[in-house]
Amino acid sequence: MIRKLVGRIVSTTLLLLGAAAILLPFIWMLSLSVKPRDEIFSTEIALLPSRLEWRNFVVALTSTDVPLFLWNGLVVVLGILVFQLVFAVPCAYALAQRTFRARALVFGLVLAGLLVPFHVTAIPIFLGFAQAGILNTYWALILPFIPTAFGIFLFRQAISQLPTELFEAARVDGLSETAIVWRITFPLVLPAATAFAIFSVTAHWNDLFWPLIATTDPQLATPPRGILYFRDEESGDDVGPLMAAALIITAPLVIAFLLAQRKFTQGLAASGLK
C-alpha cells in the first residue's frame, strides 16, 4: 500500500514538473505582456507586475499590423484545411472501402510519403511557383500543403473500422460513391476530422519556414512571419507589445484546442493512433 502511494506521489510530481517546464515560457510571455517597460528590463525577476500595462495590447492591435497577420493566418489555415479535407477523405475512403488492383501499392506510397519531410521538396516547389508566377500570393502559401499523406492515413485508419455492410446498404439504396463519402462516411469520422483539423491548423498557423520562402510582401505575412516585422529600430524589440502580440496570436490555438479536446482524443482513439 505504502509502495503504491509512493509511486503515485513520484509519478504525480514528475508530471507536475514536466507540465511546469512546458508551461513556463507561456506563463512568462503572459507576464511580460502586461508588464510596464521599466519592469521588463529590471534586474529583479518578478512574475507579477506592479501594475497591469494594458497599453501593450493597445499598441499591438493599433500601431502594428497584427490584425492583418491574424487575418492572413486565418485565410491560409482554413484554405489549407478545406482543400485537405476535400481531397483526403475521398482518397482515404477509396483505400479503406473500395477494392482495386493497386490499392496496397497506393497505400504503401502514402506511408512512404509520411517519411518525406516538406523541407526536401521546398526548393522544387519554389522553382515551380516562380515559373508559374504565383509567389507572393495566398495560393503560394496554400497549394503545397493540400496533398497530405498524414490526412489520408488518419482518415483511412478511421474509415477502415466502419462496418462494410453500412456502405453496401447505401449502394443498394442507390447512393453514389460521392454521396456515400460526404453524407455517410464523413459524419461518422468527424472525431478523426477534428483531430486532423487541430494538427493541420496548429502546424500551418505556426509555420515560419515556408512563408519566409514563398512571400516577401508584408501584406501577406502570416502570424509568425508578421512577428519578424515587429521591430523597434532604435531600441531593439519592443518587448511588451511584442509579447502582447505573441499572446494574441497564440490564444486562438489554445482556445480551439480546449474546446475540441474531447473530439481530439476520440479522433486519435478511433484512428488507432492513441
UniProtKB/TrEMBL annotation:
Has UniProt tagged this entry with the keyword Transport?
yes
Biological process GO terms, please?
Answer: transmembrane transport
What sequence ranges are listed for the domain ABC transmembrane type-1?
A: 70-260
Keyword Cell membrane present in the record's keywords: the answer is yes
Q: What keywords would UniProt list here?
A: Cell membrane, Membrane, Transmembrane, Transmembrane helix, Transport
Q: Where in the cell is it found?
A: Cell membrane
A Gene Ontology cellular component where this protein is annotated is: plasma membrane
Per its UniProt record, what Pfam families does this chain match? BPD_transp_1 (PF00528)
Q: Mind telling me which InterPro entries this protein's record contains?
A: MetI-like, MetI-like_sf
Gene3D superfamilies from the xrefs? Answer: MetI-like (1.10.3720.10)
Q: Where are the transmembrane segments?
A: 12-31, 69-93, 105-126, 138-159, 180-201, 239-260
Membrane-protein topology: Multi-pass membrane protein
Report the family membership. Belongs to the binding-protein-dependent transport system permease family.
Indicate what this protein is called per its UniProt record.
ABC transporter permease subunit
Q: Lineage of this protein's species?
A: Bacteria, Pseudomonadati, Pseudomonadota, Alphaproteobacteria, Hyphomicrobiales
